Prior knowledge:
The protein has 13 helices and 9 strands. It has helices spanning 3-6, 31-48, 66-79, 100-114, 123-127, 131-137, 146-164, 176-188, 192-197, 221-230, 248-261, 265-283, 305-311, and strands spanning 20-22, 27-29, 57-61, 86-93, 117-122, 169-171, 211-213, 290-291, 298-299. The longest helix is centred in the middle third of the chain and has 19 residues, at 146-164.
Amino acid sequence: MNYKNKTKICTSCESNQAFFARSFSGELLCKNCFCKSIESKVKSTISKYKMFNYDDKIALALSGGKDSVNLLHILSRIQKNQKKSSIIAIIIDEGIQNYRDEALDIAISNCKDLGIDYKITSFKEIYGFTLDEIMLRRDNDKKQSSCAICGILRRKAINYSARFVKANKIVTAHTLDDEIQTILLNIFNGDLTRLIKGSPVSQVSNSCFVQRVKPFCEILEKESTLYAYVKKIRFQNHPCPYSSEAMRNDVRFILNYMEEKHAGTKFTIFRTIEKIRPSLEQTKRKNRFIECKICGEASSFGICKACEILSGLN
Length: 314
Ligand code: SF4
Ligand SMILES: [Zn+2]
Ligand SMILES: [Zn+2]
């Protein structure tokens, strides 16, 4: 028996030729079994964390990047069997020149292909400024990266849009890589509150916040990329012009290096935090929310983070 040839056969269907080796599990997968494995992982994550109810109105945050577009395709198929549930895509236009227009176009064309409704909301419309304008006017002394600012404003815009369309659930396409990068960033920044809050299903402690769930939290980013290519799904490929500023890039580099040398490291970090999160929650005083004095949204300190950024612009 030729051992070399045998190793190229898919270990799942045992008939097709393998094209992908999943190093952390030792599986060799053909294209068909690889795609099925991603879809069934998403389903098992949804059921493990009890992410959905049969009658949810789901608002999916769609950026046009590979992860959110893949999730749109997978979720639209899963939800087809749920007659009382519906999906609407929430598309946020931050106002980033030479970048966001292409992403919007791709996001919309995917929605049209799948027959999914969408709502576009822009930073300009909600905050009065595009992200490009905010970056020109930001207070450089505060040393907040563009992604930290954009992240706060995006979260608020997504929540605002979800409430506007009367959704009771927000779905984001954070992958396993996104999740553990955030865990490490929160540890590096000493931010225990955010470390606790980042679970795959958010706790709803206030009627202002729509509950968030992350069905891709156990999918590796590189496998999400591969899924899009195999399925020939159209997504935006070139990076945001502000992304190089982020500390996240350094963390991504460290984690990829570790995973390369020690397959399974990313899953180990994720599972470890999942195990200790409940104990961490008990050590932390529950956040009490009050209305932001400027915009009326929920805030911990009287003025929400978004209004703090906007009031600090030059
Ligand atoms: S890379 Fe950063 S600035 Fe660009 S869209 Fe993402 S969060 Fe916003
Ligand atoms: Zn196979
Ligand atoms: Zn506010």
